[in-house]
Amino acid sequence: MTDSTVATSVADREARRKEAYFTASQSQLIWARFRKNRSAMIAGIVLAVMILLGLFADFVGPYNPTIAGRDADYTNGAPQIPRFCDDDGCSLRPFIYGTKRERSIATNFRWVTTQDTDDKRYVQFFVHGDSYRFLGFNADLHLFGVDKGYIHLFGTDDAGKDIFSRTLHAIRTSLAVGTIGVVISFVMALAIGGVAGYFGVRIDGVIQMITDAVRVVPAIPLFMALAAFVPDTWSAETRFFFISIILGLIGWPTLARRVRTHILVERNQDYVLAARLSGARPGHIIRRHLLPSFTSYIIVDLVISFPYMVLSETALSFIGLGLKDPVNSLGVMLQNTTGADVLLNYQWYFIPVIFFVTLVMAFVFVGDGLRDAADPYASSRK
Amino acid sequence: MGPFLRFATLRAGLALVTLLLVSLIVFSLMELVPGNCAERYLAYKNTQGENISFEDIAAEEARLGLDQPFLIRWGTWTANAFQGDFGTSCILRVDIAQLLGDKFLISALICFAALFMAYLIAIPVGIYAASSRNPVINNALRLVSYLGLALPNFLLALMIMLFFTVYYGDTMTGLFSREFRDAEWSWARVQDFLGRAWLPVFILGWSATAFALQTVRALMLDENDKLYVTAARARGLYGSRLRWRYPARHALGPIVNSLGFDLNRIFNELPIVAVILTLTEAGALLLEALARSNDQQLAGAIIFLLTATIVGLNFVTDLALALLDPRMRNSVLGARA
């Protein structure tokens, strides 16, 4: 008796599972497959956290990342790690030590920064600090701060700017550059690849030849040639948009090729023929049949090409042709690590590099996971 | 004309068209840079206290042939470029071909060495990894491949330099040690060069290896499941004999085909590595030309040479493939699709 009810409920559940599977939309199927891929899921969570950190950089970062938020008394300062206990006992509220700068005969007349264990600064949450604009509002609330003086989780740079705040803003800038670049190259790729794929034969041949010619030119030297047009007098914002546009303008050939291949393959499918035989107009076929058939692939392609945009921005800024120091981008932060001083004395400059590597890795893992999830034959191959 | 010859001529023609298109792109870019050579020359005279007028500029433009229409100037530039003459840089005022000289050759040599190293490692390891079901090996390889993309090569360079500075007291920067920098080529100089060139080769090859590993492994995975492999297995072949004689031979085609794009990727990283290691070769010259002096003639020449190298390599790999695989000769245009 009990056996049969268990059996029916199992069969029932099986039937419902199948029902759900057969009626699921493309995106639901992709999500279901993506969820099974553990490394991609972890990377997805990391990526989401990074994006949120970038979006709310003003709130999470305790200080203004520009020179306005500098801590003049703590330049090239080491990271301050909050602690709970010291010789005087423990406190539930984490604290850091203040610092003292001293220059005397005892220090051979050089500025020496020492920790002052009597000067305890307690970490507080939701404090009011430097003001910023968020969604059109003026705000000055920050996630954390200390009751007096400054706290620098990742230390400070040579001007006393807080590296933690700078890193968060750098993530935002790099993501923004990548997004603009990807959108531009996506629009161009869709237009050029779409024309090549849909009209085929002769137009396709000519467009392919041009695409191949653009693709064969090494991108970074070409970036460099284009970025050299930027006059030094341009403001940081103009520069930023110009660089993003360049990235987009050069990134399209790879995407255009994929769009073309998708359309070339899809337009000869039976369902397109069926739609055509039913009397559907070309516009209807493209919108209702062709585009939905590969939107998921296009999204995957976009995610995959994203890290290359971030990498290109970094490479350009690193060489000194992209964004420059007042702007916080990951490339600028990486460039700051190249001094010999940094390697030997100020190793905390390298902390943004960890974020950079994590961001790129997260994108690559998510992109790979999405690609496997979007490919219904991927699981049978393994 | 045999099918191979027909294939070769067609490919050569296509490569030439690509090069022409590239030269058009590069030349247009050079033209877009504000200010031309005539203005530059006369601006210099202006700093020497001479008064210059618009007529002077026009006369200078006529002397340099800059008053001709765009297409004619492009044609002249391209025709000269194909003969290895890139004119003079109007900022440095030296002949570009002379300036580049062996610097470009050294760069190309380093890049090809990096490419060679990448495939020397990637082909055996990738083929082995594809047939191995060991999850540890597979995951480790995946991680290495991703790190090749995400770990910036300059960071790697910095670490290695730090290591050498601390332990050997030599920063390993530059391609020659101080006493050989401007010396004539000699056996000692070659030795000195080889003793230092491995570092840029290694750094450039590092990410190339990671990419190549991924390519080789994915291609082998695709081939491993094909029916002819199963058939060969059914006939009693196994192990490395099976792997190398069946799927590896089929995967070779796309691998050879991807060489051109790998070289492209290595060229991309050349300027960055050049900055870190303070190499005095083409990558650094390009950077110098662009970032500091806006020297469009030099920059154009370097980009054109880099691209021509890639187009040349693509042509050679296509021919090699056609020799290896007769099917390729028939699909003249589809070979790269």
Number of DSSP strands of chain A? 4
Kindly report the greatest chain-chain contact and the residue count on each side: A-B, 39 and 50 residues
How far is the first residue's CA from the last residue's CA of chain A? 41 Å
Number of domains as seen in the coordinates of chain A: 2
- Mean pLDDT metric of chain B: 77
% residues in beta strands of chain B: under 5%
CATH architecture of the largest domain in chain A: Orthogonal Bundle
- CATH class descriptor name of the largest domain in chain A: Mainly Alpha
Poorly predicted regions of chain A are 378-382
Count of individual domains of chain B: 2
Based on secondary structure, the structural category of chain B is mainly alpha
Instruction: Please write the string of helix (H) and strand (E) elements of chain A.
Output: HHHHEEEEHHHHHHHHHH
What's the CATH architecture name of the largest domain in chain B? Orthogonal Bundle
Low-pLDDT segments, ≥5 res of chain B: 332-337
Main sheet overview of chain B: none
Average pLDDT metric of chain A: 77
Content of β-strand of chain A: 5-15%
CATH topology of the largest domain in chain B: MetI-like fold
State the strand order across the main sheet of chain A.
1-2-3-4
Structure overview:
The complex is a heterodimer of chains A (382) and B (337). With 382 residues, chain A is of the alpha+beta class. Chain A folds into 2 domains: 62-160, no CATH class; 167-381, MetI-like (MetI-like fold), CATH 1.10.3720.10. Helix content of chain A is 61%, strand content 13%. In chain A, α7 (219-227) runs antiparallel to α8 (236-266) and α9 (270-277) packs across α10 (282-319). The longest helix of chain A has 38 residues, at 282-319. Chain A is globular. The relative contact order of chain A is 0.12. Residues 378-382 of chain A have low confidence and may be disordered. Chain B is mainly α and 337 residues long. Chain B has 2 domains: 36-83, no CATH class; 103-333, Orthogonal Bundle (MetI-like fold), CATH 1.10.3720.10. In chain B, α7 (153-168) packs across α8 (187-224). Chain B is 77% helix and 0% strand. Chain B is globular, with a radius of gyration of 24 Å.
